[in-house]
Amino acid sequence: MKVAPQLQNIINRAYQDARKSGHEFVTPEHLLKVSLEFPSVCDLLLVCGGDVDTIRQNIVKYIEENVLVVQSGEPLQTAGFQNIIERAIFHCASAEKKEVEITDVLVSMMEETNNYCSYYLRAGGVERLRLLEVVSYIRQSNPDNLREIIDDLLADASFTDGVVPKDEETA
């Protein structure tokens, strides 16, 4: 299974962020923090009803106050980090996808009950079902035009009611 370039970049930057900060561990929260540096992820969460600034502030505060700092060494993956990545890969394999993407990891984060990234996503207004609907809609559309799809969703009047527009063929 391939890892999408954007996801690989996010994983690499999460490790770099943990290392630079002297953290003992790289956590799911590091993944979420770094993913919020990507406009496409922020836009996706916005379409899902998320308050990106609140999510970012909460996750940064959590990492600063709760992740152990050590003098040297490489950060180790936590079990939660591994679970999220493994679940995303498993779901992609089950769906016969050829590539795991950040959207798969975000969905996996929402399914994890024992981490703070899931808590802060929910507290920031992102609901798992809404995220799944939007991701599904994007995949059915042309995912290469993500910016255009998100702009259309934000402009659609039914968006404010939490309804993802359906193609006439699938309606």
Topology:
Layout: E1 2-3, H1 5-20, E2 25-26, H2 28-35, H3 39-47, H4 52-66, E3 76-77, H5 79-94, E4 99-100, H6 102-111, H7 116-123, H8 128-140, H9 146-155
Parallel strand pairs: 1-4, 2-3
Helix pairs in contact: 1-2, 2-4, 3-9, 4-7, 5-6, 6-8
**Mean pLDDT score, rounded?**
88
Tally of alpha and pi helices: 9
Order of helices and strands: EHEHHHEHEHHHH
C-alpha-based Rg, rounded: 16 Å
Q: If strands are numbered along the chain, what order do they take across the biggest sheet?
A: 1-4
Overall number of strands: 4
Ranges where pLDDT stays below 50 over 5 or more residues in a row are: 166-171
Determine the structural class based on helices, strands and strand pairing: mainly alpha
Let me know the largest β-sheet: 2 strands, parallel
The amount of beta strand, in percent, is under 5%
Distance between the termini: 32 Å
* Shape type: globular
Detailed description of the structure:
With 171 residues, the chain is mainly α. Helices cover 61% and strands 5% of the residues. It has a two-stranded parallel sheet. The chain is globular and about 50 Å long. The chain starts with a strand and ends in a 16-residue tail after the last helix. Residues 166-171 have low confidence and may be disordered.
